[in-house]
Amino acid sequence: MAERIQLPTGWVTFVFTDIEGSTRLAQLLGPDYRPVLREHRRLLRRTLAGTGGAELLTEGDSFFLAFADAAEALTACLTAQRALAGHDWPNPDAAPRVRMGLHTGYAEPRDGEYASPEVHRAARVAAAAHGGQVLCSASTARRAEPLPSGASLLDLGLHRLRGFDDRERLFQLVAPGLERQFPRPRTADAVAHNLPTQVTSFVGREPERAELRRLVEEHRLVTVLGAGGAGKTRLAVELASGVVEAYPDGVWFVDIAAVTDPGLVAFEIAAVLGLRPEPGRPMVDTLVEYAAARQMLVLLDTCDAQPAASAEVISRLLAGGRGVSVLATSRESFGLPGEVVWRIPPLSVDPCDDGAESDAVALLLDRTAAARGGRQPDPAESADLRRVVQRLDGLPLAIELAAARLRVLSVGQLAERLDDVLGTLDAGRDEPEPPPVDRGWMGNQQDTVDLVAAAAGATPPTPATRAVQRSATERHLTMQATVTWSYRTLGPRAARLLRWLAVFAGPVDLATVEWLLGDDPLDPLSVLVDKSMVLAEPHAAGSTYRMLDPIRAYAARRLAEAGEEQAARNRHVAWSAHALERAHLGPDGRPVTLSLYALDPLAGELRAALRWCATGGSAAAGLRLAGGLDQWWRERGLAREGRLWLFRLYGRIAETGERIPEAELAAAYHMHSLHAGADGEFAEELRYSQRAEAAARQAGDSGLLARVLAGRAAPLVDMGQFAEAERVCREVIDWAHSQDVLPDALLAVYILAELLWRRGALDEAADLLGAARPVEATRPVERGRRSVDMLLGMVALARGDLIAAHEHLLVALRSRMTHGFHGRACDTLNAIAVRCMAGGDPLTAARLFGATQATRANLRCTPGIYGGYWADQQAELRRMLGDTAFDDAYAEGAELGLDEAVALGLDVEHPDLAADSTRFRTTQAPPAPRQAAPESERRPAGQTERA
């Protein structure tokens, strides 16, 4: 250094500069690098040293200068950066990007140099800067007055400089002609992550967190798949926050949602890691080189925004170094070697084994308390809370949105409104426009990406792509926006299949999907499963496919908008009719004994089909579907629902004027009459019985007329007109004999047998039932009920023949439970309770009575013609046991489920095995039959032993 240079003393501002990526620039330019370096030095000497700075050291591409005045130093740096930016370099790749750092401290030169820690602090400030950026310490900022015209200092917060224990507040020089947006400073921060801070508590998901953590520890690429709003990001961030200490070089969150150009994915990741593009080098190469020697976890969120580009960058990162792991969230997998795909399940909606609320209810409780100012929901709302989460399929975003609605609605009101899922959840959330805010370096990361990408030659974002970026940030504001995010990525076939699948209420198998489309659905179905819009659920018999309810609601809207609803829903009605027909047939296509269990899984689909028939489809098709559910409705305690569907279908007929054959009307009215009787509506029962007869006579079908006429006795029994009912039954049976349609009159046989039992004509009842047994065996829709055995068991009880009663009743009970006739099984259990009383086992009898009553209450079954008899027997049993013993045993039985009660009934010991059995004695005196009470003492509430 020349002796004539006068070095400043006292408060000195030190300036360090160097070229970012100088080694790469030298490799790129080769022999042309030296002229660029020389020109760079010339510009800096003219603008830095030429404005009062003392040049202490120039080595390679670096400068070290000292200024006596901090403001002058900042002005010199601003002038230098503008000169570099405005210079005409040989080509854009040759432009050197110079970083500059300033720090002011007290120092005195000795022997033409400074030996002070302030020099090292200034060097560390410069090392934290990026190319084109000017950083200064708080000490320089305090003394840099006045600033150049139009310039200001942007506070970047506290940072720990390498080699220093304390934290330094850094400021960035901002002025016209300088870049503004840069990645975070390259400092040695203690917390090596940028995970977003959550403002709400994380609820539940303990098993999922444990499983996902194990996968991340064992595999380098784990992709969390799920539908929009399933909670992928929240779970991934929660997991990542717990493993920060396991990655010395950090855990880094990168949101791909706002990336509008596949070429910018690498830039997005690089911006988070604090990397800048190197001249003439692909950004992904810079990224891979940086990551190769580091041990870190990269959390790539919403990769489905740019799946192919994300897959390429991930593949390069994993191949470039063994210390890098990737946890990705997406709605579709990448298909990369070594990728572990983990599908996030919906939140559990069923209560825990220990009685605690499910995760879904816990989340709704937490968010509801927040929406209501900290006030927890009332315990009385628990049942409605469970209804809400079950209706929302445990989808976290849907639950969050539902909780917001609870500021306005009660939980019960919300549950009632969820038939319109999207309309209810998205109410009041119409495309909000967020106000402009200064988001800091983290929020402006996309602007940084845009700038560095533009510097590297990438296309700058247009207003249209900015709109896409805004939609990306708002995609979780409404359910519609969330699903639209995925829907817009579908091809025509996949989009059509999604729309058409909305007509199904529950899971479907591959054959059903193929039947719906009339084409091979494998390709579009695979797309929907891959994009997490349809869930594939493997089973031993084959996979089934279903949509979460919010997605189904969205797809249904799209179906209507596309003008395809009529065709799709009519197709679904046809499928429902076909499925109902198959439930009555065996593998060989021949009728089999009707099992109501075969109808249970179809109930949701049949209700959906009925809804369409009653609102936009064919009422005739709806009546046929309703007929297929005839016995199912009554045996499941849903007679009222059956009546309501029929009323809606009648309304549809009146609305459209659709022509319905008289035979079909007669069958519907007959079914309606039986539903009304089971529901205790006796006047309605009689009215529809009369309508059924009139329509059946118009139809001219003898078998149909026999079935309808056989039901005419039912309302008479229900209204206590037993003699008239018996007369009607005999007339119907005689007429059916004459027309050779006796099998169609079986209901009249059953009712007549009940009436004969009631008045003690046991021999006639037994003969009538004996003749009916072979007829019943030919009727697939009736033989599973084993009504003949049930009634013979009741006759045997009245005769005191416990052995015959036991055998008949157990046959009836097994058959009824085997074929799903739960309401009728209750009658049989009551009869077995009476058999236990007579057989000396009163405690079992009381338990069976208690279990039956609890089940009947759940099924909303009326006691029928036996109601008074059961009441008398229970009163007698109470006298036998005493109030306390009876009540205890009865309550114990009420705790049993139907299957447990049936098992108890079937375990009753056969009378032949009892020590005092009289079956094989030479003389036998059976107990005298108990006569039924006079007709005037009873008025039964309904009928159970009916077709």
Automatic annotation (TrEMBL):
Biased composition (Basic and acidic residues): 935-947
Annotated stretches, region: Disordered: 914-947
Domain Guanylate cyclase stretches: 13-126
Parts forming coiled coils: none
GO molecular function: adenylate cyclase activity
Low complexity bias locations: 921-934
Matching Pfam families: HTH_77
Entry protein name: Predicted ATPase
Source taxonomy: Bacteria, Bacillati, Actinomycetota, Actinomycetes, Micromonosporales
